[in-house]
Amino acid sequence: MERLKSNGGGHVNSAFDPNLDEPPIYEETEFSNDEHRTVRPSVISAFGHDTLDRVPNINFYRNAGSVSGHRAVRPSLQELHDVFQKNGRISVPETVTDNDEGSEGTPSDDLESAAPSDAKDGGIKFGWIRGVLVRCMLNIWGVMLFIRLSWVFGQAGWGLGIVVIALSCVVTTITGLSMSAICTNGVVRGGGAYYMISRSLGPEFGGSIGLIFAFANAVAVAMYVVGFAETVVDLLKEYATLMVDEINDIRIIGCITVVLLLGISVAGMEWEAKAQIVLLVILLVAIVNVFVGTALPPTADKKSKGFFGYNTKIFMENFTPDFRNGETFFSVFAVFFPAATGILAGANISGDLRDAQAAIPKGTLLAILITGVTYLAVALCVSGTVVRDATGNTTDLAFPELPCNGSAAVACELGYDFSSCATEKCNFGLMNNFQVMTMVSGFGPLITAGTFSATLSSALASLVSAPKVFQALCKDNLYKALHFFAKGHGKNNEPIRGYVLTFIISVAFILIGDLNAIAPIISNFFLASYALINFSCFHASYAKSPGWRPAYKYYNMWLSLLGALLCCVVMFVINWWAALLTYGIEILLYIYVTVKKPDVNWGSSTQAVTFVSAVSNALSLSGVEDHVKNFRPQILALTGSVRARPALLDLAHSITKNYGLCFSCEVFVGQRSEVLQEMTSGMEKNQLWLNKTKRRAFYAAVACDSFRKGAESLLQASGLGRMRPNTLMIGFKRNWRTAGTEAVQSYVGILHDAFDFEYGTVVLRMSQGLDVSHLVEAEEEMLKAAKEQQILDGEMMPNGGKARGLFRKSRNSSQQVLTTRVSVCGPPPPQVAKMNERLVEASAQFKKKQPKGTTDVWWLFDDGGLTLLLPYILSTRKKWKDSKLRIFVAGQPGRTEIDKQEMRSLLHKFRITCSDITVIDDIHVRPHDNSIKKLEDMIEPFRLHEGSKGRDQAEGMQKEYPWKITDAELSTFEEKTNLQIRLNELLQEHSKSANLIVLSLPIARKGSISDFLYMAWLEVLTKDLPPIMLIRGNHKSVLTFYS
């Protein structure tokens, strides 16, 4: 590569590679040839010369707009490849700015494009302890620890109780492992579980689970606050200080509590984190208080209530289960498991973590371990010190002469007679008293404080989680109506609107909600999130996508699948109708997002699995030999741009629909270097248009020096394995008489190539024409002009184009660019405008439902059945159901009925119904003289007229004009020429009013029939008729009457 000399300390080459992270630093370098240059050390040390190539840099791999709206760009392959052709004068921008659109032209206001907040700018970022560990522990250590844990172990015994806790920990641990794998497979932004599921499984799964997960957190706030309020009301009752009554006091205290929690949350994450630390300290003291209390010697009052201190006999008596009141292992498990559903508390604020990839796995898994051990330890301590039943009466002492047996045998041995509990309901003991922890603790009020701490911390965590997840969901704009809640405020991008919505929901449920009924639904919502997190990990692993490279390696895809199944089972164990309701809501939301088709592409594992399945199915199909019963037309339509010939594309799509391949193909004619950029830029745009307009077709384009070579490439290379096109569909060339020799030869040559490659061939003609590309270009020009004017208006207007008050611009000047651009072209003449109007109307003919009428099939030559199969397929489509098939066949005079009966029998065997069969027995009749005269006048400019010349002169003329129609050719094919004229007369007579005519396509023998004569045949055959399809199969059977 040529070396560039220094020019006053600045480089001549504008495309020299500068440092992407900071301003380039240059130093003087002396070379062996006494040349001095200013060079950048890092580039010279790596390559020894100036280069347009960039060294690897993280900024090249950022998503659009990820760093304050700017991202670094590396030189494109074309820029590197063409640099010498353009004398090295290529300017490669260092960064690009994404204002309203991402790099692909899609909205860039999703989570990927949000500028990450930095602690240096005032935003609060948490480490793994404050951000994840503390939050998860507080959420898992709920009121279950102090109120219901003793009851669980009383019912199940500590043997099955350990199984209950272990099974819960297994589910949460597997989910934690799966979550760790997902969140270490790339940068994790705000949104927690929603973000991970949506980026793994796609917007359909993420959008459905994100909404119900955010709602579940909002309602969970009400549940935890009501738990807190109930504890407060119990204290008020104890001291006879109720304000109104029990229910209304719960509502009043609950609403006041939510307001206070909302104030803490809105004040900022830093205040919320400080509040969590205070609550954690209280909770830890309360837990320690339980352990200390069990070690203290029991008082007589505590003994009467079933607490005797550590005793082996009590411990062994509590080993076996003692299910009462219809409880079972699964019902007890259903009571306990919701306590374990706090493992996402840290992940839910993933956007506020300093390093979410490191913090979430470490904090979540450690929290599961610590809380699991704590639950187990507290439960075992209580199981070894408290009996199942106690009267609470200090006078119920056991006398030595009484035998100790039955369920109260251990208490009897310890000096207390609780045998009455076998016949009467007692209020104390593991089975009866929810305040066992308060009784056994060293200082009872601390347990009450611990209960307050547990409920308030869980409520606060849910109050923070719900708006964060909801904001992430709204930012992705999956639900257009909810985009209002995407806006954040302050340096930490706090979702104030989400906080208010969560507050309203929680207050509403506190005031009117039946929380006992709603509780199992909320637990199932959380479990559905866990199930999808596990399934996301399994799905991504199963897809074997090269992009699935989690830094966390301690996971297993089958273990994740087991975790997903366990979550689904637990959902039904907790409450079967709540599980069904959860699935129903999730399916409805999934369908809604799927139908809306959000304009996002996150590279989900669903896409990866779809690709793997497609490859697998294609390979399986390639090993199966084609069979006539499974034949279906796979159409390669030469439409040009997908919008250029809508009628051709619509008809092709009507045939293939969702059941066959359809290629919309375009050939860019010219030097490859000149047309390549246009072709490349149009590839994605055309495919997106097909998807948007629900055409199940593929767009393919090639760049070639000639149209025929491009079409030949498409015919040979399109498709994959058995999934290859077998039918060419092309529009009739209406301007063949003025297009020039080369264009006509190219067009007819494509038909010859299709026959050579054994393609079925379809030529479509409509009297108004097919090509509307000039109208599409005019429309795009108008839209471009309007956009330019909009930009101009924005530049001339203050506040970025948002005119307000005195600065509101007059709309009269807003047409400046638009009027100028349109006036250059000027409006079309009335005649042209009317033609364009008819053309647009005709181009949409096959898009709408066909009126009542007929599809006339002139099956004149047996081509394998394609001429009959295609109109039959059309007749099965909803838009064509009112267009009945009529079959026309050629017959001999005097055999009309016999020929009709034979055709009817054949159609019956093919199971194809038609409304009528007509035998044409006068095809051989000579056409009218005026029809022949019209053909002669048509081909006159293309005739050689060598018959009236001498032999040598005639040979010279043939060499000079080899493409012209010779007299010998006309004489040889006079009968076939007359046949085309006669067929047009018959078509005018029988099918003038048909919705569509299908006719066997005449074949031009290579080297025998000139291109212009063949075009004259097609012209005279299809002139002045309704839409007509000329079809010729490849003469291999596509119909069979065998089963």
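(ticket continues) Second input and output from the same batch:
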Amino acid sequence: MYDICGENSEGQVLNCPYGSPSVKPDELLSAKIQSLCPSISGNVCCTERQFETLRTQVQQAIPFLVGCPACLRNFLNLFCELSCSPNQSLFINVTAISEVNGNLTVDGIDYYVSNNFGEELYNSCKDVKFGTMNTRAIDFIGAGAKNFEEWFAFIGQKAAPGMPGSPYTINFKLNIPESSGMELMNVSVYSCGDTSLGCSCGDCPLSPVCSSSEPPSPQRKETCSIRVGSLKVKCVEILVVIVYILLVSAFFGWSLFQRKRERRAPTSTVEPLLKLTDEGVPHSSHMQEDENISLKANEMDPRLTKRMKLSYVQGCMMYGTWVARNPTLVLCTSLAIVIVLCLGLIRFKVETRPDKLWVGHGSKAAEEKQFFDSHLAPFYRIEQVILATLPDSTNGKHPSIVTEDNIQLLFEIQNKVDGLRANYSGSLVSLTDICLKPLGEDCATQSVLQYFKMDPENYDDYGGVVHAEYCFQHYASTDTCMSAFEAPLDPSTVLGGFSGNNYSEASAFVVTYPVNNAIDETSNVNGMAVAWEKAFIQLVKRPEGGYSAKLEMEELVPLVLSSNLTITFSSESSIEEELKRESTADVITIVVSYLVMFAYISVTLGDAPRLSTFYISSKMSKPVLADDSIINSLLALNVVLALSGVMLVVLSVLGSVGFFSAVGVKSTLIIMEVIPFLVLAVGVDNMCILVHAVKRQPLELPLEGRISNALVEVGPSITLASLSEILAFAVGSFIPMPACRVFSMFAALAILLDFLLQVTAFVALIVFDCLRAEDNRIDCFPCIKIPSSHEDYDEGTDRRTSGLLARYMKEVHAPVLGLWGVKMVVIAVFLAFSLASIALSTRIETGLEQKVVLPRDSYLQIASTCSLESRDTNKLCSISQCDSNSLLSEISRASLIPESSHIAKPAASWLDDFLVWLSPEAFGCCREFMNGTYCPPDDQCFRHSDLVNGRPSTMQFREKLPWFLNALPSADCAKAGHGAYSSSVDLTGYESGVIRATEFRTYHTPLNKQGDYVNSMRAAREFSSKISDSLKIQIFPYSVFYIFFEQYLDIWRVALINIAIALGRLWSSAIILLVLVMTVVDLLGVMAILDIQLNAVSVVNLIMSIGIAVEFCVHITHAFLVSPGDRGQRAKEALGTMGASVFSGITLTKLVGVIVLCFAKSEIFVVYYFQMYLALVLIGFLHGLVFLPVVLSMFGPPSRIEIIEIQQADEPSSSLNLS
């Protein structure tokens, strides 16, 4: 094939199909040929025009391969031998000819190449990077070939009309036909590890220089497991079973020993001085009564003495007498203090910015983001639309979306987006006003339509679907496949639902609109973007009831659905807007929850017959007339008291919010929903216990005595329970996530205020309510007084009979738990569940799913990229002659093990591309005019003699870098930096020769679960830390999602430390501590069963669970401590005394409020405030009313009531000591 005999319709030159003896070129042509084809010397078999054609054709591929000289040399030798070798007739045979303008031209050839050359050529090039697109060069110049046969098949294809490539078919042959006289082309081939043409470790991992730093094998987290038959069991599960068997066996043995010992011990005949009445009135309600009796007895007989020693807390509660005498003063004073705190609501502000809600102060990721944004440029805002096909009803597979109809539909959608206008400060804003324009005036929209220059008129001209499929494989090497903004477009960024490189099988179009972003959130740039984003959401969102929009907007979703497709979308401001909507989405649910709890409180606090007998004692002592029952019901109602209690809860919440607003702490709308519910649930418990304690007092005592005795009875347990909850939330305020920290702070103060109001204002309200009832005034209408004419009523009010629940606790529940066999079963079952929960807790994942935070009907999707940024530019490059352990080489090696590194591709390196762009081999890139100014794409910037060891000098570097960053990429030079690297280098102070900051971009592997995000961030930080130490350069990884996931790196440590601090407050009670630990462990087990993740929200809930679980324990434990008798009798007495109040005032109160939350629209309510709270209530109830009494009956501390014998006048006397 000698000389040129014509051109095809596309302008491509065609060789002549006849041979010619080789000729000796002139000196200039020989020099040119030697510069491109060093393997050819002497005579050649090509004309100068043929050589220039060869030079032009390989020019497109050179920038991809010049970073690896061995690969480039082998690749050029393949085509140099084809075009100019004097021996080409020995390995090239023309197999097809065609006639063009009367001349015969070559239309097909056989090219005989040795298998060794093909194999070594491929091996030298297969790992060469194309940094601009974060991928391998073989993907561009070889269509992702997996071996040299596939690469040769791709290279040898005859180019279709309008497409670049070979003008004739090249059939690469690896075997020579017999007696053909042909030979295999087997010119010298260079290994990429050749030291004379050495490639970097990133381009040639098998290079001897890189052999000492081979990529580590993927780190697999192998968990210890044992196979039992066909069942594979984890070692931790086996260990738990062994521990369980040992503990249960030891416990059963100890129990049997104790049981035999008790049977042998003589029965004590000592009878405690303080006893319960047959009616079940608890001992503490008789303290005042016993004291009066004792005083009278002492007057009659000086030998009898009685001494009562009250604890400090009980002594403080005696102030109830003073409160009962001055209810108006107490009520007004307490309300006045809270109202003063409420004045801070004037400065009330709500925080809705996601980064301020979820990123803690001093966050390392936040500091790195600030550095990145200020020195380089903030990540652009992302608006996205995804069209996807529906699965086939027969096989469940998604059909391909790459069809003519779907592309035309995408053009229609794009037309609507282009025509979208938003109002901002009186001016109309369109996409072209705010979009990212890296290479000119066209938006850098990432869409499959870019293969048609975003113009529907080009669809048919370019060849329709066939053109799109061609561009999927040639998107960086064909002018017609370049985007409208003159940059190659990777099909993997605009398609979804495909495997490998089978882009034509894609089931989704992904359209991304990058929009300009600014550091200043209040700037016009962001304001215009936000305004357009709202209009964009209105355009794409499905119209709902009551939604009014333009007709074109309402047509969009039906248009997509009519094509049997689905549409999803998101915008940069979507998370913030959805968080705002989430904050108001469950108002009705919360209100209903409050109403249900209010109705329950009214019933629980009341004393009406038929309703109250289920929970509290009735005033009825004998049958009365129906009219008497109605009158008693009207008098016994406590609706106003319940409503007043609810109002106190509201005031405590408002006081808390007001205080923090006054000191400048912003609130969140979710706080205003959760905290009132939480404080109400907590406050109701104490209100019920206080009211029931007052009603248990003997009516013959004066009102001051009843109030005082009630506070003495339940005050310590109420105080301890409230303080436990307050301190639990106070510990939660150390959580780094601002939203949870602020929530804990607000909740702690609200519960504190609620507690103070309960023991002051609510006690005063109880006094008023008792005075109303004694004065025979109707509850809701206190001005109406009902005259009492029923003798039986007065006679019956001096005694109370137990309610149904109280009788159940005393007569059924307590005796059953007292049985030895039941105790054994209870201990065994609860211990089994706790140990199982320990094993299950290892399966809990960290993170907080976005779909959980947002409403259930939210439209948001998630995507992410990653950048690796360095504050120095030394030891970074990864092309030939760079350090083997350079940053970019290490990133390339890490991309080979994505399972552990979570790095999917080599980094896009402006430095590598800049050095290639400067290289004399890349003769289509850096060029300058004779006056020294840049020639935007024939004179080269440098010759080899101008460079020092192939590198530019400091002056050359400083001069040419701005040229590179402003050079537009083209088919002749894909390495130009404008667009791809415009914001990758901070040129501030560049004149001094210092680059202050730069970034190198790569991608994470697909991140589907929260754990993937956390693990990828952890791997990136470990990688950068290792490289920083190795290169002595400050390097840090950065991605837009890092600031939101940084907290999960050590969430287990935070959780365990805070739980330990919260539990450490209760060291004085080993049994309560044991129950609380089991409660938290069991809650962790339930989290694992329900797939609830560990995050700041669940950590706060776990800490809070300690405070709430105390309520289930402390009242029973306190009643046990002040009960007489042995452990079994005291446990039964504690259940009989406080069991009903704990069940009705704590369990059912929380239960009725929690159940309503299951109807919430916000998934975070359902998961973290319904499922976790419900599990907490049930676990707390079982541990408080089942497990705790059993443990107390077996291991409980001694009673604080002692029988003291004092000898006076030689006769014994007894007194009571309560300590």
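Agent notes: The mean pLDDT is 75. The radius of gyration is 41 Å. Closing as not reproducible unless the customer responds.
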